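Ticket #4471: structure output looks truncated?

Reporter: J.K.
Steps to reproduce: submitted the chain below (158 residues) through the standard prediction queue, then opened the result file.
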Amino acid sequence: MRPTPAARTLMDNAQRIRAIFLAMPNLLKLVSAAAVGPVLFILIALISSGGTPILPLRGGTLGIEFWTSSAGVAALSVSSLFCASSVLMLKRSRVGPVAYILALIGMCAALPALGEIVGIRTTALIFLLVVNIIWTVVLSLYFYLSPAVRNYLNKPRS
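Returned output as attached by the reporter:
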């Protein structure tokens, strides 16, 4: 049985995306794949907004209080930016790394709101912020100083 034209197009696109992903430098692959993690977290939080426990909170569950506070909106915004940056990097856009860095900066801004809902102590929150700032600087240097990333982003789109 031969595949339908729509199935054939879908398979061709999947093969093209796979080839582009495999052409990425290794750390860029990791960064792009890791950008999907926050999106999965948000999807789980959306599905479980009735109070299903997915994170150990002070109250015991991640539910309505997550979405009624600023934490839900901040997490949704940051995870959307992570996902968009991953797609942009797959499209070899020079804006992809900028979007990823902006998402990391947004995560720094969102950590206090999320920490308040989740119940993270101040010392742990400061530690997370410092680690995130260091990670942002390291990735910024990698994105803009690595010849492999520069070559990948400068190749013509196929």
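Triage note (M.O.): checked the attachment and the full token line is present. The radius of gyration is 18 Å.
Status: closed, working as intended.
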